[in-house]
Design a protein that fits this description.
By secondary structure, the protein is mainly α. It has four helices and no strands.
Length: 82
């Protein structure tokens, strides 16, 4: 009886620990999506300003430049698709 109770407590703790580790792993992956390249970020911001002013062609050129510098720049890809 006591062994069964201890076993259940141990299984619960292991289960909670696994859930914690999985959630921490998922949140750590979000941080890796941030752009580290300042040049690509500046090109992206310039493109947004051009888009807001209605100048689509130059904005798309800036977005393509940003993607040349940082090929995995998700925000730039999104703006091009949008």
């Amino acid at each position: 009886m006591i062994i069964d109770t201890l076993y259940r407590i141990l299984v619960r703790q292991i289960f909670l620990l696994l859930i914690l580790l999985v959630s921490l792993s998922a949140s750590a992956q979000e941080v890796n999506c941030l752009v580290k390249n300042r040049k690509a970020e500046k090109l992206y911001n310039d493109a947004l300003e051009l888009l807001y002013s209605g100048r689509r062609k130059p904005a798309f050129d800036k977005l393509y430049e940003a993607l040349k510098v940082e090929p995995n720049y998700v925000e730039a890809l999104y703006e091009l698709a949008n």
